[in-house]
C-alpha cells in the first residue's frame, strides 16, 4: 500500500469511528425516549452499533479490493440486505440478555423491521461512500502511474535525442583531426584538446537539464573553436546578448545543433567567408535566441528541412514544454534565421 492510500485509509477510519459514536449516541437517546433506563438504552446502542460497524467494515473491506462493475450493483444491494438481516438477527438474540423485562423484549420484536431498514440504509451509505472513495483513490493512483510512465518515456526520448548529437559531431571532428595530422600536427593536437574539453563538459551536463545562457555560451564557444580549426578563417561568429538575459535558464546543449546547422548550410556549399550570428534577448517571460547564417539559394534548400539538427531541437522543446510554437525558421534575402523561445518558468 502506498503512502497516499495509507493516509486516505486513515482519514476514512477516523470518519468511520466518528460516525459510529454519533450513531451510538443517537440510538441511545431514542431508546431512552421510549421510557427505558439509560443503562438499557446505552447497552442497546453500543451492541447495535458494534453489529452495524462490523457489517460496514466488512462491506468497506470488500470494496477496497473489489469494485463492482455496472452490471454488479444488484449483487451489492443483495449483500447490503443480507448484512442488514444479520444485524437484525443479532439484535434479536443478543439484546434480550441485557434486560429480561418483557416490555423491552416486546419492544425489540416490534422494532426489528425498523432496525433492519436503518441498518440497510447505513450499510448502503457505507457501500456508496466506499465505492466513491476507492474509485477516486484508484483513479489517482492510475494517473500517478501514467504520469510517471510518461515522464520516464519523455526522459528516455530526451536522452536519446541528446545522444544522437554526439556521434555526428564526433565523427566530423575526428575526420578533421585526421586531415590535420599530416600537414598541421600542432593544430591537430590543439583540436584534440578542445574536443576533449568539449566532451568532458557535455558529460557533466548529462544530469544537469537546465543551465544559464552564459553557461550555454561558454560550452558553445568550445564547439566553435573546434569548428574554426576545421574551417579556418572562413568561419566567423558574432555573439551578442543583452545583459538581462545572461542568467536566463535554458535546456543545456540547445544551441549547438542550431549553430551546427547554420555552419553546415552556410559553409558547405560556398568558398566565401561566412559569419554566423547569435543573438539573445529577453522578450517578456521568454528568452529569445536567434541564429542567422547566409546561404546560397542555388545550392541550399533550407525550406525543405535541415535534417536531424532542427527537427531534434523542435522535438526536444516540445517534450520539455509541451508546445510546438517555440521554434520558427525564416529564409529571406539569402539569410537563414532560426529563432527559439525558452519560457522562463
Task: Give a description of the structure.
The strands form two sheets. Strands 2-4-5-7-6 form a five-stranded mixed beta sheet. A two-stranded antiparallel ribbon has the order 1-3. Strand 4 and strand 5 form a beta hairpin. Residues 1-5 have low confidence and may be disordered. It has helices at 3-33, 38-65, 73-94, 102-110, 112-183, 185-204, 213-231, 255-267, 308-321; strands at residues 210-212, 235-241, 249-251, 274-283, 286-294, 327-332, 335-343. It folds into two domains: 3-146, no CATH class; 184-343, Heat Shock Protein 90 (2-Layer Sandwich), CATH 3.30.565. It has nine helices and seven strands, in the order ααααααβαββαββαββ.
Number of domains: 2
* Helix vs. strand class: alpha+beta
As a percent range, the share of helical residues equals 55-70%
The outline comes out as rod-shaped
CATH class of the largest domain: Alpha Beta
Q: CATH homologous superfamily of the largest domain, by name?
A: Histidine kinase-like ATPase, C-terminal domain
Our Rg estimate from Cα atoms comes to: 37 Å
The side-by-side strand order for the widest beta sheet comes to 2-4-5-7-6
Count of β-strands? 7
Which oligomeric form is depicted?
A: single chain
- The stretches of 5 or more residues where confidence is low (pLDDT under 50) are 1-5
CATH architecture of the largest domain: 2-Layer Sandwich
Proportion of residues in extended strands: 5-15%
> What's the SSE pattern?
HHHHHHEHEEHEEHEE
Helical stretch tally:
9
Largest sheet geometry? 5 strands, mixed
- Report how far the terminal alpha carbons are from each other: 34 Å
CATH topology of the largest domain: Heat Shock Protein 90
**What is the residue-averaged pLDDT?**
81
Amino acid at each position: 500500500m502506498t503512502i497516499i492510500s495509507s493516509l486516505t485509509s486513515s482519514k476514512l477510519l477516523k470518519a468511520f469511528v466518528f460516525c459510529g459514536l454519533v450513531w451510538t449516541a443517537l440510538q441511545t437517546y431514542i431508546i431512552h425516549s421510549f421510557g427505558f433506563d439509560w443503562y438499557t438504552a446505552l447497552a442497546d446502542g453500543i451492541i447495535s452499533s458494534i453489529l452495524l460497524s462490523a457489517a460496514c467494515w466488512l462491506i468497506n473491506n470488500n470494496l477496497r479490493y473489489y469494485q463492482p462493475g455496472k452490471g454488479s450493483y444488484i449483487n451489492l444491494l443483495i449483500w447490503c440486505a443480507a448484512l442488514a438481516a444479520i444485524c437484525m438477527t443479532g439484535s434479536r438474540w443478543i439484546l434480550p440478555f441485557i434486560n429480561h423485562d418483557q416490555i423491552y423484549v416486546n419492544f425489540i420484536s416490534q422494532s426489528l423491521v425498523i432496525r433492519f431498514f436503518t441498518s440497510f440504509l447505513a450499510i448502503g451509505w457505507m457501500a456508496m461512500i466506499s465505492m466513491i472513495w476507492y474509485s477516486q483513490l484508484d483513479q489517482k493512483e492510475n494517473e500517478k502511474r501514467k504520469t510517471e510512465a510518461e515522464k520516464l518515456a519523455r526522459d528516455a526520448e530526451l536522452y536519446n535525442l541528446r545522444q544522437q548529437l554526439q556521434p555526428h559531431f564526433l565523427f566530423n571532428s575526428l575526420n578533421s583531426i585526421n586531415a590535420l595530422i599530416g600537414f598541421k600536427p600542432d593544430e591537430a593536437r590543439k583540436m584534440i584538446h578542445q574536443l576533449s574539453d568539449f566532451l568532458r563538459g557535455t558529460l557533466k551536463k548529462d544530469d544537469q537539464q537546465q543551465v544559464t545562457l552564459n553557461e550555454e555560451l561558454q560550452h558553445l564557444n568550445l564547439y566553435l573553436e573546434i569548428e574554426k580549426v576545421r574551417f579556418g578563417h572562413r568561419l566567423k561568429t558574432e555573439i551578442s546578448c543583452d545583459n538581462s538575459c545572461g542568467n536566463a535558464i535554458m535546456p543545456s546543449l540547445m544551441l549547438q545543433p542550431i549553430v551546427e546547422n547554420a555552419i553546415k548550410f552556410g559553409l558547405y556549399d560556398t568558398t566565401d567567408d561566412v559569419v554566423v550570428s547569435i543573438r539573445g534577448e529577453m522578450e517578456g517571460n521568454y528568452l529569445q535566441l536567434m541564429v542567422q547564417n547566409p546561404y546560397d539559394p542555388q545550392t541550399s534548400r533550407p525550406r525543405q528541412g535541415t535534417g536531424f539538427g532542427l527537427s531534434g531541437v523542435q522535438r526536444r522543446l516540445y517534450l520539455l514544454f509541451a508546445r510546438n510554437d517555440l521554434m520558427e525558421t525564416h529564409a529571406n534575402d539569402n539569410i537563414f534565421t532560426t529563432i527559439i523561445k525558452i519560457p522562463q518558468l
